[in-house]
Design goal:
The protein has 55 residues and is an all-alpha fold. The two termini are 23 Å apart.
């Protein structure tokens, strides 16, 4: 996963409401992401954990 150099908006700033359109677009973008089952997650997590122990 690459990170971008552009500065992200701070969405945790209190008192600055987010427009409804922006909120809906963020939800749609997140729904298009990669998903995995609980079993797949556990397998990947345990693999990651085992690799960390080797170090």
């Amino acid at each position: 996963m690459k990170t971008s150099n552009k500065k992200e908006k701070n969405r945790a700033t209190p008192g600055k409401p987010m427009p409804q359109e922006e909120f809906v677009s963020m939800i749609k973008e997140a729904e298009e992401g990669e998903f995995m089952t609980v079993e797949e997650f556990k397998e990947r997590f345990n693999k990651w954990r085992a690799e960390r122990k080797k170090s």
